[in-house]
Amino acid sequence: MNDALSFIVATLHATVRAGTPLLFAVLGTIFTERSGIMNLGLEGIMLIGAIGGFVVSYNTSNLLLAILVAMIAGAILGLVHAFFTVTLKINQIVSGLAITMLGSGISGLWGKDYIGVVAERFETISIPLLSDIPVIGRILFQHDLLVYISLLAVPLMWFFIYKTRGGMTLRAVGEAPEAADARGINVFFIRYLYTIIGGSITAIGGAYLSLAYNSMWIENMTAGRGWIAIALVLFATWDPYKALLGAYLFGGITALGLRMQAVGTHIPPDFLKMLPYLLTIVVLFFTSTDTLKRKVGAPATLGVPYSREDRT
């Protein structure tokens, strides 16, 4: 394999790894926002998942238990967000920002005694036969367990949302909660359920950073990935397959920047580091208007609280 091809393969392999935490966060948020609840708290949820998983891994060396605890921590923050937005009907943007601050604060306090220590991590699992395929094998089939789970989650989630009765119910609540309520669907329960589920899936993205991408805890280690994921939900138009594309696109920009620094490029490293965030701003700029959100398939009542008293 020549140097150019080796560089491309290594970059694409790193792209998958860099895109995985974003993919989990976007998939979780798609579930939440399909029900009509906007969630801007991804940064805080990812951080609480990262520290929760790391602490359990460090103290027990049980990675599956670590992921479970991370998911529970994310689910709790999802529950808090649901309580504020569904029951109390607080502005969903304000609640999401509060969740981010809450998660950041708790993770910083919880993790202060774990800075610099190393925990058990997910190791690479090469899939027999498939990993031996030239080029493709290295890119797709030489990863850790969480990467494979994220890839499997995409078609499963797409099938659930678009091909099952449960997915139809979810979409109905996000599009027309009054009509769904009139048909006997408990809108409040559905919004609670998918905000909690979304939080737990998002937290896996944070746990991936501390248990697979790295093997240590660093305060604020998400480094803005939660905000990137928010832009990616818009980019993906609330569709799991487009979420995969978007996550790997942003992951590829991150991976390319790191690889270019490693080979000694003359491009300023600060410029390379800011590329994912620059692209985030571009995506938000072109998808931020309500009219465009409707055109790209945003749930009709996203961000709008529902009250039975308002039903006509």
What characteristics describe this protein?
mainly alpha; ABC transporter involved in vitamin B12 uptake, BtuC; 1% strand
Protein described:
This protein has 13 helices and 2 strands; from the N terminus they run H-H-H-H-E-H-E-H-H-H-H-H-H-H-H. With 312 residues, it is mostly helical. The chain has one domain: ABC transporter involved in vitamin B12 uptake, BtuC. Strands 1-2 form a two-stranded antiparallel ribbon. The longest helix has 32 residues. It starts with a helix and ends in a 17-residue tail after the last helix.
Number of helical regions = 13
Binned strand content = under 5%
Number of E-state strands: 2
Compute the number of structural domains. 1
Largest pleated sheet: 2 strands, antiparallel
Estimated radius of gyration: 20 Å
Q: What is the fold's blueprint, element by element?
A:
Layout: H1 3-34, H2 42-60, H3 63-87, H4 92-111, E1 125-126, H5 136-140, E2 142-143, H6 145-163, H7 165-175, H8 177-182, H9 187-213, H10 225-235, H11 240-262, H12 269-287, H13 290-295
Antiparallel strand pairs: 1-2
